[in-house]
Design goal:
The protein is α+β, with helices and mostly antiparallel strands. The protein has a single domain, classed as Aspartate Aminotransferase, domain 1 (Alpha-Beta Complex), CATH 3.90.1150.30. Helix content is 34%, strand content 24%. It has a 6-stranded antiparallel beta sheet. A hairpin with a 3-residue loop joins strand 1 and strand 2.
């Protein structure tokens, strides 16, 4: 996954905004709430962090190339970081990013969801 591909995909999701913060990380938000982060990699591969369900978290945290997201997971949040595509290819990563967007959007106040047309997301 390239940074350009990551940014293009996240931009294609409804009501997203992009900011570069936290030491150069590319952060994507829906209605001001973070759903994806790219950067912070010590390797050549782009590290991508996303929110996931408890079940997905339990499975993914044990897979090679994936780990509980630094900082976020240590605070009890269900966020995974893909460091390499060893067990999660780019197509699967895009689906997890889409799901992360849905999870975060579903946690917004109902009024905000309705105003943005995200109530069915």
């Amino acid at each position: 996954m390239t940074l350009e591909g990551y940014n293009a995909f996240c931009a294609s999701l409804p009501h997203t905004t992009h900011v570069v913060q936290w030491g150069g990380a590319h952060v994507w938000k829906v209605a001001g709430k973070v759903f994806a982060i790219a950067g912070w990699s010590e390797k050549d591969e782009l590290a991508v962090t996303f929110k996931c369900s408890s079940t997905a978290y339990d499975i993914l945290q044990e897979q090679p190339g994936l780990r509980p997201a630094p900082y976020l997971a240590s605070r009890g949040m269900k966020w995974i970081q893909r460091q390499t595509p060893e067990k999660m290819d780019d197509a699967a990563l895009l689906e997890y990013l889409r799901e992360s967007h849905r999870i975060v959007a579903s946690g917004l106040p109902r009024k905000t969801q309705r105003e943005l047309g995200l109530a069915e997301v």
